[in-house]
């Protein structure tokens, strides 16, 4: 499923991306810089440092649980396999909200509750590396939420990473309806360039 452009719920301007999955559908995602045909994707190689910001609003969610992906953002490495850095929505161990995913983030960890029907502003300051020379700082609504240094934000053995937003889930394991809005994606070299606040 491809996200659609809508004007019903927006963070900035007059349009946002609607990401809706139903039944056992697995994915509806956008690639930063991608044109939908595999070209134009913005990649990050060893040592690249950037700030990436985006906003999301959960209208309805079939939450993931341990063992089932439910990613809303990935710093995805080239080739196959799970990302080294990912953000997902889970309801597990009595904690519903934003969870980390991937080796760079120390695995699946609960990070923060997420209110439905409210915009969540995310900024990730990251350094790309496949050689444990990477780092990230994760901000939610202007507050530092999580940070790690000396990690591989590119999966070791891979050459670059790129950004994906939307929903990527194990639809057969967590079937149902999920509906979010994405808006205000920004990439820059400074906090000011990536933050909507």
Descriptive account of the structure:
Helix content is 2%, strand content 50%. The protein is mostly beta strands. The strands form 2 sheets. A 7-stranded antiparallel sheet has the order 1-2-14-5-10-11-12. Strands 3, 4, 6, 7, 8, 9 and 13 form a 7-stranded antiparallel sheet that branches. A hairpin with a 2-residue loop joins strand 11 (134-140) and strand 12. The longest helix is centred in the C-terminal third of the chain and has 4 residues, at 191-194. The chain is globular. The model has no long low-confidence stretch (mean pLDDT 95).
Number of alpha- plus pi-helical segments: 1
Helix content: under 10%
Order of helices and strands: EEEEEEEEEEEEEEH
Which strand-content bin applies to the residues? Answer: over 45%
Rg is 15 Å
Short summary:
The chain has 197 residues and is mostly beta strands.
Helix and strand layout, with pairings?
Layout: E1 4-6, E2 16-21, E3 27-31, E4 43-44, E5 49-60, E6 70-77, E7 85-92, E8 95-101, E9 110-112, E10 119-127, E11 134-140, E12 143-151, E13 161-169, E14 178-188, H1 191-194
Antiparallel strand pairs: 1-2, 2-14, 3-13, 4-13, 5-10, 5-14, 6-7, 6-13, 7-8, 8-9, 10-11, 11-12
Comma- or semicolon-separated keywords:
197 residues; single chain; mainly beta; 1 helix; 2% helix; seven-stranded antiparallel β-sheet
